[in-house]
């Protein structure tokens, strides 16, 4: 019987890990899996060593969580070394914690695979030295990452982006319009202001001012906000009350449908820009942060883009309005152009299609499971001592 231990640090990692476990069980029916994870892994029959709900924190909460992270790391290593004794540990994303854990696991003779590398291409390339030393196999989700890792001597492989095989694509726009009481004769501008309270308070105001400008110039346009499940109705409504002239629909638990059915999107920078890319929906990206955080970003970054479609393409294909350039008039002008200029719109769709082609059609969870299975099969072969 083979034993695997998985470490995730937040909801997305838990989701990706659950798909990997599903594939692993097909390949190795008697595999035993334990994890630091959440409900998605539990649903796959995985025994949780610890729930990761307190791990995915930011800001001052992260400072408070340092001690608990240190103790969790020590407890994981002690359990794996003294009791569970896994054949392999799979770390998923969450680089700040997992890279430190990888070092200690390596020092204790525990084999480590890693899925979803820290973004060494964005900042702190020095982490590649530790990845090379402590990680037996790095499995990457962005096509350009493979070249960067291999150049540093890392045993790395591009396994495909998990979203390519995980998100649904069979949306009926007419049905979406009908179910959400939208006007079938108006174009839809989808608004995604983020999933954190700070992002809502900073960017929703910018997007609503942009919507007001667009509304004053284009009467055949309607707006629809994709509300993150962890954001309260009251917070969204507080901002909407400032713009009574805008009849904006708010939808929950329909992010993919809204991304697919919108004519243009106003997005916060993040993974959602890649999701929009997969639907080939024209978009405008924006982000604002505290001045000190933005200054540090400028000091540490290695690339000039923040949105994934631009990063993957290696050039600007969608507009990014960041910090002081996150102005409603700039955003509104770009959205109106994508709504009214057919050539501009089609050009962006073509470029987004090219990014999709670069991402390929690999099923990431299958590729990760296959890599693990191949390693476990090799490690179970008893060498012939006569050789």
Describe the structure.
The protein has 2 domains: 3-160 and 362-379, Glycogen Phosphorylase B (Rossmann fold, 3-Layer(aba) Sandwich), CATH 3.40.50.2000; 173-359, Rossmann fold. The chain is built from 18 helices and 13 strands. It is an alpha/beta fold. It has a 7-stranded parallel sheet with strand order 3-2-1-4-5-6-7, with helices on both faces. The chain has a 6-stranded parallel sheet with strand order 10-9-8-11-12-13, with helices on both faces. β11 (264-268), α13 and β12 form a beta-alpha-beta unit. 50% of the residues lie in helices and 16% in strands. Mean pLDDT is 90; it is low at 381-387.
How many separate structural domains?
A: 2
Distance between the ends: 27 Å
Q: Are there runs of 5+ residues with pLDDT below 50, and where?
A: 381-387
CATH architecture of the largest domain: 3-Layer(aba) Sandwich
- SSE-based structural type: alpha/beta
Q: Which percent range fits the helix content?
A: 40-55%
Report the major sheet. 7 strands, parallel
Helical stretch count?
A: 18
Report the CATH C-level class of the largest domain: Alpha Beta
Average pLDDT rating: 90
CATH topology of the largest domain: Rossmann fold
Provide the CATH superfamily of the largest domain: Glycogen Phosphorylase B
Strand order of the largest sheet: 3-2-1-4-5-6-7
Shape estimate: elongated
Gyration radius (Cα, Å) is: 23 Å
* Quaternary structure type: single chain
Strand content: 15-25%
Give the strand tally.
13
